[in-house]
Amino acid sequence: MTRIYLIEDNPLIATTLTDGLQEFSGCDVIGTATTSVDAIDWLGRNPEEWDAAVIDIFLAEGNGLTVAQYLQEHKSPAQRTVVLMNHATSEVREGALSAGVDAVFDKSLQLEAFYDFCRKLSISPRR
Predict the structure, then answer these.
(1) Residue 7 CA to chain centroid, in angstroms?
(2) Which residue spans within the chain are E strands per DSSP?
(3) Residues of the chain under the 70 pLDDT cut
């Protein structure tokens, strides 16, 4: 089962995504953070405990791009980073992709595609 670390500051959305990832994608959300500092702290202390990080860009404190940039240099090649945000403009998509994320999805328009992406992580052999 793919282990997801979720960086999302809205508790309702975090709960909905956690349920959806388990139900539709066969993934296990192993932890959450609501700020970039908390996310980087946990990821730094648990480098082998996760397979994919799902990152919201606009957080209550800090910015998800900071987390993505950190992970670009600190994750293993087998680990994946995904941005899941509202209103994913082309500028934000480009910024996220240049920060090394594997995919960018819009929460309001591409949730099914996001779950499909995560499902494929669950069935792919780990490196």
Answers:
(1) 6
(2) 2-7, 27-33, 52-55, 80-85, 103-106
(3) 124-127
Distance CA 87, CA 47 (A): 30
CA distance 22 to 111: 14
The conformational region for residue 5 under phi > 0 = left, psi -120 to 50 = alpha, else beta, is: beta
Supply angle C-alpha 102, 103, 106, rounded to 5: 160
Angle between helices 64-74 and 90-98 in degrees, nearest 10: 30
Its pTM stands at 0.93
pLDDT at res. 127? 43
Are 21 and 118 spatial neighbours (Cβ–Cβ below 8 Å)?
Answer: yes
Residue 31 CB contacts under 8 Å (≥ 6 apart), including other chains: 5, 6, 42, 46, 50
What is the reported pLDDT for 88? 78
What pLDDT sits at residue 124?
63
C-alpha R_g of the chain: 13
